[in-house]
Each structure stands twice: as C-alpha cells, then as structure tokens.
Design brief:
This protein has 135 residues and is mainly beta. The protein contains 2 helices and 4 strands, in the order E-H-E-H-E-E. The protein has helices at 41-47, 81-89, and strands spanning 26-32, 52-62, 93-106, 112-124.
Length: 135
C-alpha cells in the first residue's frame, strides 16, 4: 500500500527479562501472552516505562494461567491479574481499554486449545517513571 512507511517501523525479538538497554522509545509496545510465562513478570513491568514514549501505547494480553513450571509462586500476582496490572502500571500508564480476547491454538491436526486472554491497552503518562515493584 502507498501509505506504508517501512523505515519507521521496527520489530524486535528477544528475552523480555533481558532487553537491551539501548532499545530506545516506541510508539507502541506489545507483550502478547507473555506475562504468565515469565519467571519474574514484575521485572518486565518495571522496564516498560523506559520503552514507551510519553503518550504512546502499551498492549498486554495474558490468559492469566499462572503455572509453577514458568513462574515461581512467589512471583505470581496477589489477587487477580487484572487488579495486579492496574496497581503495578498506574504510576506510569493510564488504562484505556480492557476486554477478553479469545484465541485458538492448534496442537495437532485433531486437537485444539481454546483460550481467552485478558487484553489491556494503556497510554504512557507523566508519572514516577517506574511502576511499582511490589506484588
């Protein structure tokens, strides 16, 4: 399409808990179905204000399926994932939208996994610059 500007778009793949310090600021950051698969999800939340431009957007999706094999219980949210995100992100982000987002994972030709993720969209606001590190 004529309105596509590939020189201003950047996609990067890496370890969410070991992001480069020189990544810069982004208009939009997406972390999809990631939080409940990190060993220490608060570490990512603490880093997010450094990655999202003022006025930029953060989009998070998570099925909220906390499992010991990925995240030690001591790093699980206290209470609901929704409430935990609101508390942790409030100093630097304003919640714009939240809703359930269904998705389907094909495991084999005959087996599928139907899941519903919590999708939240946030705007970066003036704040302390850090999210809370407490759970």
């Amino acid at each position: 399409p004529d309105n596509v500007r590939p020189k201003v778009i950047s996609f990067e793949q890496g370890d969410a808990l070991d992001l480069r310090t020189d990544l810069g600021l982004f208009d939009r950051v997406l972390a999809a179905n990631l939080l409940c698969r990190l060993s220490d999800p608060s570490r990512l939340l603490i880093r997010l204000p450094e990655l999202v431009k003022m006025g930029g957007e953060l989009v998070l999706t998570t099925p909220c399926t906390w499992l010991d094999e990925f995240t030690p219980r001591c790093n699980w949210p206290v209470g609901s994932t929704r409430d935990w995100l609101k508390k942790e992100l409030a100093p630097s982000f304003e919640l714009l939208e939240e809703h359930d987002e269904p998705f389907l994972i094909r495991e084999t030709a005959r087996k599928f996994q139907w899941t519903v993720a919590l999708l939240t969209k946030w705007r970066r606001i003036e704040g302390s610059g850090e999210v809370s590190s407490r759970q």
